[in-house]
UniProtKB/TrEMBL annotation:
This is Outer membrane cobalamin receptor protein. PANTHER family: HEMOGLOBIN AND HEMOGLOBIN-HAPTOGLOBIN-BINDING PROTEIN 1-RELATED (PTHR30069:SF29), TONB-DEPENDENT OUTER MEMBRANE RECEPTOR (PTHR30069). The keyword Repeat does not apply. Its main location: membrane. Belongs to the TonB-dependent receptor family.
Amino acid sequence: MIKTNYLILIFSICCAAIGFSQTGTVTGKITTKDGETLPMAYVYSKNSSSYYTESDENGKYALTLPEGKHTLLISILGYLKQEQQIQVFSGKTITLNIALEEDPDMLLEDVSVTGKSILKDVQESAFNVVAVDAQPLHNTTLDISQALERVSGVRVRRTGGVGSDMNVMLNGFTGRHVKFFIDGIPMEGFSSAFQLNNIPINLAKRVEVYKGVVPITFGSDALGGAINIVTENGKQNFIDASYSYGSFNTHKSFVNAAYTADSGFTARLTAFQNYSDNDYKVDADILNLDTNIYSGEIREVRRFHDMYRNYTLMGKIGFVNKSFADQLLLGFTWGDEYNQVQHPAYMKIAFGDKYTTSQTLMPNLTYRKKDLFTKNLDVSLSANYNFGENANIDDSTRRYNWLGEYVDTDEPGEFNYTRMFFKNRNGAVNTNVTYTVNEKHAITVNNVLNTFSRKSRNEVEPSAADAYPSETLKNILGLGYKYKMNEKLDVSLFSKYYYNQVGQYADPESDGEYEHLTTATKELGYGGAASYFILENLQAKASYEKAYRLPTARELFGAGNDFELGNTDLKPESSDNFNFGANYNWVMNSKNSLNLDASFIYRDIKDFIRQVVSPSTGTLQPGNEAKVQNRGVDFEARYNYSDFFTAGASFTYQNLRNKLKYRTGRTVVSTIYDDRIPNMPYLYGNADFSFFFKNIRNKEDRLSLSYNLLYIHEFDYSWSSYGGRKIPTQVAHDIYVNYSMKNGKYNVSLECTNILNEDLYDNFSLQKPGRAFAIKLRYFLDKF
């Protein structure tokens, strides 16, 4: 019933919008007085700052505005701001070309001009957020998760090579504590075929990392923060195609294309695939298959059953910049994934035949409209429903060791004899309404509804319970208020109402009569964020949230792969989150600039959910830690010299500790009281530098040389008071070389990751790939 009501709401608003809103478009080109194009110039309406755009690399821009009079403001660093009065007529397009004069106080000879962009606007908001420009990384083979490792406070943890499970650690929170979005749409219900570890970086225009408190517009129960992937929606017509080949027989290909007609009709298509044998070398103990005894001698062996492949196709069709919608898109995502399983959650056991599969078919709807019904009333809606199919196959009668040797056995199943098939159904509707009262005040209402249903079928051991689904329904209603007194002070206040319902069918009397049992949780959260410019280039930020996180369907019911088990007894987490930060941007002169960013966090968490590994079986299961506390700091610095050189470094320290002094019914202090939470890096950082050379053969060619370093300090595998081993300190070095021709139309890149072939480890000491090489060819056409 709830889902039906939301669909009716979407349909009604979209239909009503057709008759009530009238807009026009202003287009043009921004240049210097000498006629040179100015990319990344900021164009916005002074009447309402919610209407803005940037000029592209050719200086061109297009901005849709409500009918009536407007004052346009055009600005970019190094040039005098310019205002233009215009009259916008419904359904009409007017042309306005702008020529800007140089700012006499800033001589910009040989300087790369980068105006106050949308990227910078995001970073200057009241929230503790880092906006990463993804476009300079489009010539690399990185996926989005790998690009995130360059952000202070972020640590991406993987179980292996290409396509392996991963989770993001953000200021001490990890896994499901951190929520993911794509263009503001929750990714919680997306399948494993479409996740950060297999989405190419080329899909993203920028990636926004919110640390701690998250804006109300996301409507999320993110306890630790959120990551929003912003795709390319500004360019009207373009083609971006690439192919790469690398070590371990790794192939990656990507195509992203869009076409927008003058009428506003638009069509977009994205396709990508990843394939790898993942046959890198690891250190392992060898099982003697005859005696069933491990040798005790660690040997270097090659992984032999870890092949991964996935295909993903996304399409969208609809209209943009129309009177009834700024954006109205109908689309779909299709995905197919095959993943061989080499080992469980630890590397002692080796498999040779076990595998999993995943299929996705997800229709989706996106609607956005500014000035709906009345001026300054902005509405956005997104809805998707995932028809997911998953399989977990373990029916081999062989037993393997790490040399790839095997013996035949009488009992099938390398780990747990099964041929399990799942039907996962995920639905999500995100509704956001913002009313800007005036230049100082704005009110936002947001609601996010998520539904999940899973039916399973085991061909090996059928059960009457297979006919009954496991279900969850989660709804988060938010109310926000924004106050912007002037260009210095920005304040946001919000509250959230959380509702979570978990349903399962059970046979309590074991008589074949199944009952539908449900439990419900209701919580009220609240918080606020503020920023203040102490100086023109010095900003201070502070935020607080009484936050709640509801267990996800995966945590409640498991991943369906034998290794990651569920726990329906999980309690919701709650946390008092405090964040303090400062940013200083020093433009020394026309060539030199330095940016410094520092932040401090404090978290007081109850019922902290973390994965615990079983030492005997290698399985993972989530559980609650009653009381956990975290204090941490982030620091990041970046220096730029003209458009020739850039260098940066960041480090993160977090002190995540168990603060339960007495266990229930005990009077003796707990042995692990004040221990660090195990399997959590607490000190890590990275550094990088790049050189950019122009006019290599002609004015249209460029060469870039880049270096990246990753450092992780040693950390405990288990509770330190119980003794046990540590995960050793790790250092990795990567280098990248890119040659671009015809202003980026043709690109060739070479890269080497972990160039010194260091041993790298991650979740529960799982070993990651050593030295790897790759070459990437990319073609980019931004107009046709």
